[in-house]
Amino acid sequence: MDQYMSFLGEVDPVRGVVKTGEEEVSVEGKILVFKGSRGSTVGSYVIYAMKQYGRSPLCMVVKEVEPILIAGCVIAEIPLLVVEEYDDFASIIKNKNHRYIRYTRGSGILYAW
């Protein structure tokens, strides 16, 4: 998702979906890529709720981090990665021929092809 996301209001933790305008996208068991988060301190608890309901992403990949996102990922034990060259990374994963991402927990390395 090439946008900043508010976990309060745009994420349904019970169903594991992100609302993007009129569309809903499932993030359960996937690598969630987005620019960063915005909004309420409740966002940390929404991330934690996703984990508790078994609907969380495998990891989150962002352009920018902020304390609420960090706290949510820490309490939910969801790996959070910051991509230095986010625009290049986003263009690779937008290409329909290169939509695979692999992350090995604890390695700090993210592969996109």
Can you offer a commentary on this structure?
With about 110 residues, the chain is an alpha/beta fold. About 30% of the residues lie in helices and about 25% in strands. It has helices spanning about 5-10, 45-50, 65-75, 85-95; strands at about 5, 10, 15-20, 25, 30-35, 35, 60, 80, 100-105, 110. The strands form 4 sheets. A 3-stranded antiparallel beta sheet has the order 2-3-4. Strands 5-7-8 form a 3-stranded parallel beta sheet, with no helix packed on it. A hairpin with a 6-residue loop joins β9 (about 100-105) and β10. The longest helix is centred in the middle third of the chain and has 10 residues, at about 45-50. It starts with a strand and ends with a strand. The mean pLDDT is about 90.
Strand order of the largest sheet: 2-3-4
Structural class: alpha/beta
- Overall mean confidence score, pLDDT: 89
Query: What is the number of E strands?
Result: 10
Beta-strand level of the residues, as a percent range? 25-35%
Sheet with most strands? 3 strands, antiparallel
The number of helical elements comes to: 4
Query: Which descriptor suits the 3D outline?
Result: globular
The rounded distance between the terminal residues' Cα atoms is 17 Å
What pattern of helices and strands is seen along the backbone? EHEEEEEHEHEHEE
Query: Helicity level, as a percent range?
Result: 25-40%
Low-confidence stretches: none
Kindly provide the radius of gyration, computed on alpha-carbon positions and rounded to a whole number of angstroms. 13 Å
